[in-house]
Amino acid sequence: DAEITQSPRHKITETGRQVTLACHQTWNHNNMFWYRQDLGHGLRLIHYSYGVQDTNKGEVSDGYSVSRSNTEDLPLTLESAASSQTSVYFCASSESIREGPNGYTFGSGTRLTVV
Amino acid sequence: GDSVTQMEGPVTLSEEAFLTINCTYTATGYPSLFWYVQYPGEGLQLLLKATKADDKGSNKGFEATYRKETTSFHLEKGSVQVSDSAVYFCALTKTVVQGAQKLVFGQGTRLTINP
Fold first, then answer.
1. Is A99's CB within 8 Å of B99's CB?
2. For FRET with A75, which of A56, B15, B62, B96 sits at 20 to 30 Å CA-CA?
3. How far is CA A94 from CA A16, B103, B104, in A?
4. Residue pLDDT, tens place only, B11-64
């Protein structure tokens, strides 16, 4: 069965370190997204990609970067982790047509703690 | 810009009570509307969707009707169960270039059902 997987599920890192969160999907979806979930803010879009070699900034992109070298993967990198980046991170993918039958497919999330 | 506003939580109900979670949106054009559910420790799952005005989405006893005149998409269930305890997110998709979609989420409403 097709799936979208995130790794690691939990990560503790120190302030200033570079951290990369992995997202891998086997749906063959063109669109991939990274969100962070914080109490009182719901989900906020960090970066997104509409295909290989395409990346775009979302509403809270400062301090984060992504790259899309193939269809399956969209890794999220925190260049220099800060305590404000402690959050739960969700990756999602979707079909390219406007009314995909299942909306988005989400990963199970990565809980990142920056100490 | 496009936005989604949900009723403040948390919401606590007794089993078999009637549930309404309010959701209103601001958007240009004609977005598709979604309700996602997040069970404890899991990622988001699509609960239901509606793609045009007056459409009713339904799943697992939940319903929501796309009301263009009031820009609303309220979630309802006639008789809730303990297993419905979760966080519920209202969302809309905005179509951007080349038919791709971007999801905009509300802040989420935490629902707790007591036996």
1. no
2. B96
3. 33, 10, 14
4. 999 999 999 999 999 998 788 899 999 998 888 889 999 988 999 999 999 999
